[in-house]
Amino acid sequence: MKIVIDNVGKKFTDTKKKEVTALENINFSIDKEEFVVLVGPSGCGKSTLLNIVGGLMSPTEGSVYFEGMDNKQPNLGIVFQEIALFPWRTVFKNVVYGLEEKGLSKKEQKERGQHYIDMVGLTGFENAYPKQLSGGMKQRAGIARALAIEPDLLLMDEPFSALDAQTRTLMQEELLTIWNRTKLSTLYVTHNIQEAVYLADRVIVLSRHPGQIKDIISIDLPKTGRGEEKYRMQFEQYADAIWQLIRHDAAEALKE
């Protein structure tokens, strides 16, 4: 399976009835088992692009299609910055929500829900409610919910940006552990350049609005262990190359 983003563009009408171009001439693909990260300055259209790929928003131009699906509807799992767990549902009930909607039997829900709760490290918290969880635990529950439907593509929109630095680092490590077990095709949005280099097979750098692809950088480092000292120089070189691409646009976005 391959996800193709073909010449996608998006225009909006702002509050002053003026047409604004958010995205323009976006072309790339996501291969099977590939982890692709979108990075760019504020307002470059990263989240808009992710929403278009996820079918939550229609492009003004171009299209998104899935190759190798034999005309089947793709299964998409989405994790947002705002976790949006149902406060009246337990962790288990939140995780199996999508399975309920798909009409899976109670037995299948229990087996699959428990499998993904165990995978994200929430064993023992099945009956806890969101208000009883830390920020990191809520995100784990959100990830388990997205994984439980066993998606063809996992979409993640700055899922760790609201977490403190230590929790964020731990969650990045855990996400890679989960990815190594599931090998899900993933499209991930972040402002954080180090996070992009740490997670990605390829980093797509977007320009300031209208968002266009400035460069696509392949990260030639092992998928795990990138934070080790022996890769530090190479890691920093990738991060610096991305920062140089973004720096001017980020400064201009700050002035606005």
Give an overview of the whole structure:
- The protein contains eight helices and nine strands.
- It has a domain at 1-74 and 192-231 and 247-256: Rossmann fold (3-Layer(aba) Sandwich), CATH 3.40.50.300.
- A six-stranded mixed beta sheet has the order 5-6-7-3-8-9, with helices on both faces. A three-stranded antiparallel beta sheet has the order 2-1-4, covered by helices on one side.
- It is of the alpha/beta class and 256 residues long.
- The chain is 37% helix and 24% strand.
- The longest helix has 24 residues, at 232-255.
- The radius of gyration is 19 Å and the shape is globular.
Give descriptors for this structure.
6-stranded mixed beta sheet, 3-stranded antiparallel beta sheet, single chain, 256 residues, alpha/beta, Rossmann fold, 24% strand
